[in-house]
Amino acid sequence: MKRISLQWRITLMTVLLIGVTCVAMNLLLCSSGVYYMDTIADSLQGGGTVILNEEGTASFDPQLIAPNEELTIVVDGAQGRFRTTNWYITAAVTLLSGILAYFVSGRALKPLRSFASQVEMVQMTNLADMKIDEDVLPEFKQLSRSFNQMLERLNNAFAAQRQFTGNAAHELRTPLALMQAQIELFISEHPGLQPETAELLGLLQEQTERMSRMAKVLLEMSELRSVPCEDDVELGPLSEEVLTDLAPLAENKGIALNCAGDALVIGSDTLLYRLVFNLAENAIRYSRTDSSVTVSICDNDSHVFLRVEDQGPGIPKQYRESIFQPFFRLDKSRSRAYGGAGLGLALVWEIAALHGGTVEVETSSENGTTMLVSLPKRSAASTEQ
Question: In terms of C-beta density within 10 A (0-12 exposed, 13-18 middle, 19 or more buried), how is residue 164 classed?
Fold first, then answer.
């Protein structure tokens, strides 16, 4: 029952109500109609009783009045036709009522469909600009007003979260930089350290650098909304530049880097560079030795598609959405070895959403993974609006 739409529920309830009403009226009309037909037949036969049953037998008093046998048969046959006609009318009225109820309920639910279509347009990136139309029927006005208030509260909550993250990351950068400098200075001034001390200092230096990178990414994520996205960006040359910068990392693992295709999008050159860089770097780190990583770009009339293919171990199906959450790491031991904090793909998701696009795991198996970024094509005019 839960899968039936509201329109069909209203239609079925209306048909049921009208059907029950028609059946009840039919029974009442049939009983009263047959009763009065019998009364008419009795009066026409001068008080004699005429009974025509299924066997065709009849009884009447021939001394009072000449029996009109034809009239008696007509009256008795009319009773059957009366009942049949009533049932036909009941079925027709019920069916017609159901059809009318379906279309009338559909028109009555039109404001609800309009409300649903507006709700579907709400995204995390447009909370500040999105507002549901409140010029609707009184029954939906309070719902629209409450939903707009909820959007405002959500936008304020996200803004406060971004501000807190940015402030925390900014405050952490200075002491972390100071700690890094002190550790490096201590190591340079004491070259003859014992192995245990040197190992401890190396671990401290590694973790401090990791925390510094984490603070930098958090600060970047908090400042994404302030970056203008009005540049004409050619993804082909941008991807080639990314692969050039990542070439030393790939050479260490014997990984071949390939780039194919090109397309133009409107956005931030800096942010899109970071998007491709994070995806390609992630693919290189998790690909097998002596394999390849390919960045391919294509487009259609409405979207640009960027794919990053690796030859790594693959991503389990149950984690293909979770990997875009902040601080989520599929393999914590390997992430620590690579200095990862679980923010790279989260930043990719934020950048794609800021450009009105999406990122997802298109395919993944034990032979590798393909990450797909879909970005809408936008003209300069639409961007200015």
Answer: exposed
Distance CA 168, CA 214 (A): 11
- Let me know: does 10 contact 105? Beta carbons within 8 Å: yes
Please report whether residue 203 resides in a domain.
Answer: yes
Supply the range of the domain harboring residue 25: 6-108
Out of 3-12, 39-48, 57-66, 104-113, pick the least confident.
57-66
* Last residue of one domain, picked from the residues 211, 226, 241: 226
More confidently predicted of 15 and 267: 267
Is 72 within 8 Å of 52 (Cβ atoms)?
yes
How many structural domains is the chain composed of? 3
Helix (H, G, I), strand (E, B) or coil at 23: helix
Q: Taking the CB of residue 139, how many other CB atoms lie within 10 A of it?
A: 10
DSSP structure string for 78-123: HHHHHHHHHHHHHHHHHHHHHHHHHHHHHHHTHHHHHHHHHHHT--
Round to the nearest angstrom and report the end-to-end CA distance of the chain: 45
How far, in Å, CA of 208 to CA of 220, rounded? 18
Domain of 181, CATH number, reads 1.10.287.130
Burial of 73 (0-12, 13-18, 19+ CB in 10 A): middle
Among the three residues 108, 139, 171, which one is the final residue of a domain in this structure?
108
Question: pLDDT of 257-302, one tens digit each?
Answer: 999 999 999 988 888 988 999 999 999 988 999 899 999 999 988 8
Q: pLDDT (tens digit, 9 = 90+) per residue, 238-259?
A: 999 999 999 999 999 999 999 9
Amino acid at 283: A
Residues in the chain: 385
What are the residues facing 286 on neighbouring strands?
none
pTM: 0.56
